[in-house]
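Dear Dr. H.,

I hope your travels went smoothly. While you were away I took the liberty of generating a structure for the chain from your last submission, since the lab meeting agenda had it listed for discussion. I wanted you to have the full record in hand beforehand rather than looking at slides cold. The sequence, exactly as received, is reproduced here:
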Amino acid sequence: MPSFQEYKRRSLIPLAGLGLAAYYLMVFVPLDRRADSLDEPLGRDWAKLTASLEQTNASSLDFRYITNQLKETRQALAILEDAKKSAAARLELGPALRAKLNAPFQLVDYQNERSKQMDELDRQAKAEKITIDPAVYSGFPEHTVDIQQPALLWAALSLTEDLLATALRCKVAAIHNLEVNLAVTNAPGADSAGRWAEIPVQLEFTASADNAARLIQSLPLRAAEIRAVGLPESPPEKEPLLLDRLIIRKQSPEKLDEVRVWLRAVGFVLRD
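The corresponding predicted structure, in token form, is as follows:
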């Protein structure tokens, strides 16, 4: 006949089972669900990481390689930022021109300066015996109703003066055509501050091959750089122009050293 202790032991076994079942339902199951919920964002991040590395089927990743890639990317971004600052410094306008751009635009003052520059171009060309076709004078930047940011005309006029003066210093034989078109995309907008306005200047001229090369080499350089490489001297406030398009052809079979050049150069103005 079973003793009292045996009955007691047998009654504890069902209670222990019920306790374990309750623990499983009340503790283990919620913990399991909680662990699964924590795995979901980790799984999404893992999928994004493997997709960015083009290793979508990978079960493991080389994190040392990823760390090295991240380091190289940061170095490349630092180099890009330095290049951005250097480009901005190179394209920075002189203080006198910047003052004109920031002041209220006065059409009368602009027209007077435009006429003054055309007269000076005519005088210098005659002194240097350089032919200037009439199309050059009509190509000077002019105020029209289509120009939504007229202050940029000051920059366009300054860049035109620099390009033509460079052509005269480089002893071109003739200047045939000039076009300065302020692009419609340069119209100011609500978020235009801090962006670059693009000013294209097109010039067609005839010169010896050597003189044409000197002109082209001088375009992107500042006055100190021009002096350093031995090109014809320029005023200290010369603005840089970046060459965009270039066509060179022989002028005639009889003049093998003479070329006719069409170029499109671009200047940039940082909007305040």
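Two observations you may find useful: The radius of gyration is 37 Å. The chain has a mean pLDDT of 82.

With kind regards,
E. W.
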